[in-house]
Amino acid sequence: MPDYHLHTLPNGIRILHKQVTHTKIAHSGFMLDIGSRDEKPDQLGIAHFWEHMAFKGTKKRKSFHILNRLETVGGELNAYTTKEKICFYTSLLDKHFEKAFELLTDITFNSIFPSREIEKERGVILEEMAMYLDTPEDAVIDEFDGVVFQNHSLGNNILGTKESVAGFKKQDFLQFIQDNLSTDRIVFCSVSSLPFEKVLKLGQKFLAHLPAVYNNRGRQPFSQYQATSVSLEKPISQAHCMIGCPAYALNSSKRIPFFMLSNILGGPGMNSRLNLAVREKHGLVYTIDANYATYLDTGLFGIYFGTEKKQLKRTTALVLKELKKLREKPLGTLQLHTAKEQLMGQLAMAEESNIGLMMMLAKSILDLDKIESLNEIFNQIRQIDAQQLQDIANEILPEDNLSYLNYIPAGD
Q: Helices 115-133 and 136-148, interaxial angle, to 10°?
């Protein structure tokens, strides 16, 4: 028996709920299968801009009333945009759940994109861009997408460009929504102590009257990767580096083994191989980590570190040395057991965050049409063997498959 409830309305919108009886906080949100990769060349940044504009006016509310609606009862209203998703979500006391559900429905489906608010929010987003440019450890990660996914929408910055953001008008938002929104690719998800019957009743009240909209939008798959090395001089005091390549897609049978390999290499634990080899042994970095993101048709693996300009070559060589070890030497029995236990513990702790759980459940239903239980994932982790990890390392992580993006401090 699944420990969640799922119901599909006649218009295709799915209502997903997990009851957690020991909490008084209700987390809920709409997740839409629309993201920055769905933008055309003249629409760069419009998905993220739409996320901002959802708070700026609906058919029955002005911006102030949207922002004030939940904050007066101690709740939070927020949103985010990724390459493939937009999410509008709330967290508040469960006794105010109906109020949150109604407001989320309003901002998701009834935004009117007032021209005056577009102009104001344009300035906010341009400031957001400037903030990222002033934070090289964030900017280098975002820009690395464009190095790996050259000439593909996955490589575009979610924020867009100054030129694209400067030109958007009301009709542009309406057209983007018309081209991309499908009611069967929308999930309303909640995690709270409330019974599913109450959530479903409210879902029927607020959502059942919405017309069904089906869009046959296709996504251009990524192909033709070419390893690339880019170095850019920046007015910064430390060198920032990304090393990585495409990796397995979300539905790949090798996704979880590669996630474990990435965790061994540069996961959040202080005992990751990169942290021990580069920070603890040589003191060359403050932060070094590895990350693996999955998309419907591909994935992205990346290693980030910041170091002194004069230590960049040495640090890079140490990173490549650790990758070589993974390719050439299989994990020992104890190393493999420890890696499995560490990953399972991290995943179990992540599921303790109910707001993160809510978002994960919604994304899983949209992407996979199913939700893997923690026990199912644990069973997959237990089946991983050292030879499988070594084979994956040799498939994904050979040196000639890696791309580089270096931010180099300008001057001597």
A: 100
The amino acid at residue 335 is Q
Query: Residues 181-198, buried b or exposed e (16+ Cβ, 10 A)?
Result: bbbbbbbbbbbbebebee
| Type of residue numbered 313 | K
Q: How far apart are CA 166 and CA 125, in angstroms?
A: 10
**End-to-end CA, the chain:** 64
**pLDDT tens digits, 63-88:** 999 999 999 999 999 999 999 999 99
**Domains of the chain listed by start with CATH number:** 5-207 (3.30.830.10), 229-409 (3.30.830.10)
Task: Judge contact between 354 and 20, C-beta under 8 A.
Answer: yes
Mode of pairing for the β-strands spanning 239-247 and 403-409: antiparallel
The residues with which 241 forms a beta bridge, in sequence order, are 305, 406
Of 2, 111, 3, 102, which is closest to residue 57 (Cα–Cα)? 111
Confidence tier at 1 by pLDDT (50, 70, 90): very low
